[in-house]
Amino acid sequence: MTTQPIIELRGVGKSFGGRAVLKNINLRVRGGEVVTLIGPSGSGKTTVLRCMNFLEAHDRGEILIKGRPLGYSGPGGAAGDRDSAALIARVRRPLAMVFQQFNLWPHMTALENVAAPLVLGKRLPRAEARRRAAAALAQVGMAQHAGAWPGRLSGGQQQRVGIARALALEPELLLLDEPTSALDPERVEEVLEVIGRLAGQGITMVMVTHEMSFAARIATRVVFMADGAIVESGEPRRLFRHPATGRLKSFLAPWLRRPLRFDGPDG
Ligand SMILES: Nc1ncnc2c1ncn2[C@@H]1O[C@H](COP(=O)(O)OP(=O)(O)O)[C@@H](O)[C@H]1O
Ligand SMILES: [Mg+2]
Q1: What is the pTM (predicted TM-score) of this model?
Q2: Which of 15, 36, 37, 46 has the most ligand 1 atoms within 8 A of CB, as the residue to mutate?
Q3: Which helix (H) or strand (E) holds 253?
Q4: Cβ(6)–Cβ(65) under 8 Å?
Q5: What residue ranges define each of the domains in the chain, with the CATH number in brackets?
Q6: What is the pLDDT of residues 185-234, one digit of tens each?
């Protein structure tokens, strides 16, 4: 493939209070890829996603979004001066994020939650924002709940509004941080179904998940992290069936006892 990656991480590192939580992360995501990020709790998955969006500032290496440096474009790179908020916002515009805890505004209806970033961030006229928000809610099967307050919706419905809010931004890359982990078990499937449909439509995404059989089914590539580093990555069938490292073998042990479903022949 020769197309430019939507995002590229080169030697990215991040420390909190002197402790390195990301070490030399190298990752490239191209249009149409569905990358799932797996690994034990505390391995740095959320921090990688947050750095991709500059919700967290990396302090080593560089992140390029469509070839443009994110966060630091001056000489010293990540050790130098941080770019202006306006420039950072422009560079990361192709990205949108779906959060583990939905992060909906409780005092706004579902429709207003989806429309607000279009008005505030994209500066769309209010009517146009509401039209786009309604279309995004329909895409996740939430059209009939447009006027509902988040507090009146189930967790699964709230997360579908969270996904609609990200989709309405028409991102080139969707970042999802364990989108189903805050849900009651009976609400997980409806959200996975929506995400699976988006992946099938060719929406590029990086998703952190503990849903292994879902990761195996929808991913074009799986990335396994442990202790702040990428330990292994590859095509799901290879990675889940033939883990190369002891770290991944022991992480997968609980799932390998159960059958995993893969798309395509020989699944
Ligand atoms: N804002 C923060 N301040 C200090 N430590 C943090 C912060 N965010 C994450 N960490 C630490 O960084 C490590 C990686 O966290 P995280 O990226 O949330 O892992 P994961 O998503 O894989 O569970 C953990 O040890 C966590 O405690
Ligand atoms: Mg996390």
Answers
A1: 0.93
A2: 46
A3: helix 246-256
A4: yes
A5: 30-56+86-256 (3.40.50.300)
A6: 999 999 999 999 999 999 999 999 999 989 989 999 999 999 999 999 99
